[in-house]
């Protein structure tokens, strides 16, 4: 399959437009299942994950029409608009072949059972960043009255009498996906639902905003306590997907790691507090202005830092790998502690092959800064790990070849085009000859299940 070839060592300079947020867009698309009226979503990123979920939704009976700028050469073209309409739910089954491609497909469960009274969704497959169960989603739906059965790799949920009943749900561990699933389900349940220990991520607030436009009554979005008044039906709405704070954070690190200066147009600075604080602490200049978020590290030797991932507003686990790449080249030692997912240090062996000095003990990694990284062929194992290798490649001496690009294509819209436009020497090299047929493309099962984030 294709690879990315990077000649490192160029300081990036210029402007990158930040796309719509993948992790906001996925639940928003699932919200279309809650109504027979159209849901118009604009600023949707062009990503493999969006297309995959679109396929799952179409299978369930959602009609999807896509509009917007063509996928041309302009890296700053705006995102697409899609109209999703679930006039009728034609089947309540989301099959294994579709769900295994993307764990976020589990987000159809809540809306389906709430609207249709019944849902049968394949259990998501294994995942490269740890064992990611869905017990919290199921427990929450059971608290809303759903009868849940697990059989033959499927979860089957039924609402007695065809409708869920609002109630008090406490999610024991903060979970973004479980909060989203339950918020959507509660919007159509009978009576009031209170979700305690809810996730507070900006993507949750965006979903609440869209559900409110559809006619739902939700209070407390952005706090750990959500109050939702269920209603009988939801209507049409238009909603613009928020900008991707993780994409913006990744390019902010690209500016810092190359000693460059980037302006990130549309970057959601207000949702990036922990990441921007960490960049400033490392020595980068950060300034939010009219034209976007400016990050500069020109002439700066970055300093090491200690980072601990946490639910929002803490430091996001989805930025951990990218910061590790940066800290590998910082002065002194850094300690990175991952508290959200086990087994999320799979970029470490690859960074080490490029010359990094990293020592992992349990959920912590100690990074000792080195003077330089050397380009090497590397293999990315999940989405954000892939981005950390791109970042390391941009700063490394010589050539880095990144294989298994399908992870990056799942989560970064036109990555190489955006980076080329700000001075990176990066190109996509198509697979040739034999390798193409033998390769690890998205059609291979490993790639499809090793997804997420
Ligand atoms: C979402 C994001 C992902 C991000 C993660 C944490 C999407 C599509 N993905 O994933 O990019 O890294 O939030 O910010 O938005 N857990 C359970 N049982 C459950 C559900 C979760 O034990 O039923 C655990 C997980 O294994 C993990 C923790 O809870 O340890 C947080 O996971 P969660 O917030 O649910 O992540 P996702 O919603 O899957």
Which strand-content bin applies to the residues?
15-25%
Numbering strands along the chain, what is their spatial order in the largest sheet? 22-23-1-24
Radius of gyration over all CA atoms, rounded:
22 Å
Overall body shape: elongated
| Oligomer class | single chain
Largest sheet: 4 strands, mixed
Structural class from helices and strands? alpha/beta
In percent, how helical is the residue content? 25-40%
Walk me through this protein's architecture.
The protein is an alpha/beta fold. It has helices at 22-31, 48-60, 96-99, 109-116, 135-143, 176-187, 202-213, 245-257, 273-282, 320-327, 348-353, 383-395, 406-411, 415-420, 433-438, 445-449; strands at 3-7, 13-17, 39-44, 63-67, 80-85, 93-94, 118-122, 147-151, 154-158, 168-170, 192-196, 217-219, 225-229, 237-240, 261-265, 285-289, 292-296, 306-308, 333-337, 357-361, 364-368, 377-379, 399-403, 425-429. The model is unreliable at 434-450 (pLDDT under 50). The longest helix has 13 residues, at 48-60. The protein is elongated. 31% of the residues lie in helices and 24% in strands. It starts with a strand and ends with a helix. The strands form six sheets. It has a four-stranded mixed beta sheet. Residues 23, 26, 104, 132-137, 173, 175-178, 203, 317-318, 340-341, 453 line the site of uridine-diphosphate-N-acetylglucosamine.
């Amino acid at each position: 399959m294709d690879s990315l070839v990077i000649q490192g060592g160029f300081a990036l300079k210029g402007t990158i437009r930040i796309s719509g947020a993948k992790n906001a867009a996925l639940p928003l698309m699932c919200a279309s299942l809650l109504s027979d009226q159209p849901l118009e979503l604009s600023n949707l990123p062009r990503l493999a994950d969006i297309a995959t979920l679109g396929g799952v939704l179409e299978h369930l009976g959602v009609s999807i029409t896509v509009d917007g700028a063509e996928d041309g050469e302009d890296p700053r073209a705006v995102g697409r608009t899609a109209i999703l309409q679930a006039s009728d739910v034609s089947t309540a089954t989301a099959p294994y072949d579709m769900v295994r491609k993307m764990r976020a497909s589990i987000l159809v469960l809540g809306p389906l059972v709430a609207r249709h009274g019944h849902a049968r969704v394949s259990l998501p497959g294994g995942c490269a960043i740890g064992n990611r169960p869905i017990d919290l989603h199921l427990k929450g739906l059971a608290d809303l009255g759903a009868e849940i059965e697990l059989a033959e790799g499927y979860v089957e949920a039924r609402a007695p009498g065809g409708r869920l009943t609002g109630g008090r749900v406490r999610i024991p561990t903060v979970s973004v996906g479980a909060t989203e699933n339950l918020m959507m389900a509660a919007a159509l349940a009978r009576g009031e639902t209170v979700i305690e220990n809810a996730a507070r991520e900006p993507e949750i607030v965006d979903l609440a905003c869209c559900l409110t436009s559809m006619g739902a009554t939700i209070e407390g979005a952005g706090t750990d306590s959500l109050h939702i008044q269920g209603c009988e039906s939801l209507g049409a709405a238009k909603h613009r997907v928020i900008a991707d704070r993780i994409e913006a954070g990744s390019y902010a690190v690209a500016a810092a790691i190359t000693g460059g200066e980037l302006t990130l147009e549309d970057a959601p600075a207000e949702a990036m507090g922990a990441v921007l604080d960490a960049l400033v602490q490392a020595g980068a200049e950060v300034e939010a202005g009219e034209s976007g978020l400016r990050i500069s590290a020109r002439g700066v030797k970055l300093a090491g830092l200690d980072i601990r991932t946490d639910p929002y507003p803490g430091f996001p686990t989805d930025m951990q790998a990218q910061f590790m790449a940066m800290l590998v080249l910082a002065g002194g030692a850094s300690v990175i502690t991952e508290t959200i997912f086990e087994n999320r240090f799979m970029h470490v062996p690859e960074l080490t092959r490029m010359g990094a000095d990293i020592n992992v003990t349990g959920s912590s990694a100690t990074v000792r800064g080195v003077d330089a990284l050397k380009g090497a062929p590397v293999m990315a194992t999940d989405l954000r790990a892939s981005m950390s290798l791109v970042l390391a490649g941009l700063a490394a001496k010589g050539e880095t070849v990144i294989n298994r690009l399908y992870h990056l294509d799942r989560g970064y819209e036109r990555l190489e085009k955006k980076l080329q436009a700000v001075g990176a020497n990066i190109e996509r090299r198509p697979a040739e000859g034999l390798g193409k047929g033998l390769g690890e493309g998205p059609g291979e099962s490993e790639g499809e299940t090793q997804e997420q984030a």
